Amino acid sequence: MNKYSxxxxxxxxxxxxxxxxxxxxxxxxxxxxxxxxxxxxxVWKISKVTVxxxxxxxxxxxxTLQFTDDTFTSVHGNVVWPASDTWGFTDNTAKVFQRGxxxxxTIQTISSTKLVLALVWSKTTLGSGRSASISGxxxxxxxx
Length: 144
Hints:
Layout: H1 3-22, H2 30-39, E1 43-51, E2 54-55, E3 64-67, E4 71-75, E5 84-89, E6 96-99, E7 104-110, E8 114-121, E9 125-126, E10 132-133, E11 136-143
Antiparallel strand pairs: 1-2, 1-3, 1-11, 3-4, 4-5, 5-6, 6-7, 7-8, 8-11, 9-10
């Protein structure tokens, strides 16, 4: 093998390795793909909300949530859940994601028909009119 052939062989090996390993990312993990597919499979409708174990479902009447690969939209999410934002998994276990507003959300349960999310809301805020949020541990249960 001459020097020219050796250089081409090395170049081809480096080129293939770059695209083989360079194209991988944490979201290619099977758990992430499965969870993302479930999250983005349609509109999630609120069925129950608790704050520190106290039922607050009435304050989230009509709350819906819909995910795309990297954004979400919500309707009637109260002050706690923005109308739209970005989101992304924090690691390849796909059990926790962070919204664009830096709120961390834990996925407690996910299936094709049920989604349970938990987050800590550290603000007590006033929205429009009498709408208010209280700080605490939120558990949001959704169905399809």
